[in-house]
Hints:
With about 300 residues, the protein is mainly α. It contains ten helices and no strands. Helix 2 (about 50-60) crosses helix 9 and helix 8 (about 215-225) packs parallel to helix 10 (about 265-295). The chain is globular. It starts with 6 loop residues before the first helix and ends in a 5-residue tail after the last helix. The relative contact order is 0.17.
Amino acid sequence: MKLLIDKEKFKKPYLYVFLSIGIVLFTIFMVGTFLDAQIAENIYKENSWFGYAFDKFGQLTFLIPVNFCIVGIFIYLTRKKKDWALHLFMFKTVYYTLIYAGTIIYLFAPLMSKEEKHIHELSVDIFNSLVFVSLFIATNVFYKLNPTFVEQRNFLWKAGLVIVYIITISLTTELLKNIFSRPRPISSVINGTYEYREWWNITYAFGFGKNKSFPSGHTTSAITFLGLALLFKKDTLYYYGVLAIAFLFAALVGSSRMVLAKHFLTDITFACIMAVTWFLVFENVFLKMLNKKLGGDYE
Length: 299
């Protein structure tokens, strides 16, 4: 199930895809630059099931690519290190218990608190629990259908590169949040607690690390799925499938944050621009260096 397609056929489309992504994101970002406040005011909906559902989904989306890499590493080590069988079995048992039970407990945490519950919380938590468990199961199905996937010569290094990518964009997001310290739309445009401030107006008026609207951390978490493309060659449908899913997740999570007035349009689009920029750096610099040094790729 490699779904390989002629390399020359995808050589130009690869460039066109990222050029198109860049143009679309930049255009939307510029629209938000001039219309952030108006869009936030008109799109806000306090009791939105969609908003609550994908807001919660965005908190843990980064676990999907991380889990994909960890499962692959377990499979790789199980095949290559036969004498580690018992230890790996114990680690896998602990890991699967934590990833499944921990995710469900986290998503249902609001229901266990004594605070007043929102009407959508139960259905949202059930929805998200089912989605995450399904995606975790889908990861195991993928490896079953692609038994040679972990046999690429530098699989462990590439899996590590994916995790480093996720950490990098997460840290970059947090750093920028503290630098821009932009009031969220709910506290500026909707409630008027703070004065509305454009993304480029860096004043530190509300203290270092406060508000943290720009860029969107939830969107960053959602688009970390993009990192999995580092594991696939550019001439596979899997590669382009990963790109499509990453931006679908980002669109769903980003729009949910806007519906709840937690982020502006520029917060969402800049998070995507930043993630794509880092992805291109990792793919065209670090991954190339890795392949040049170690050789091999997914054949």
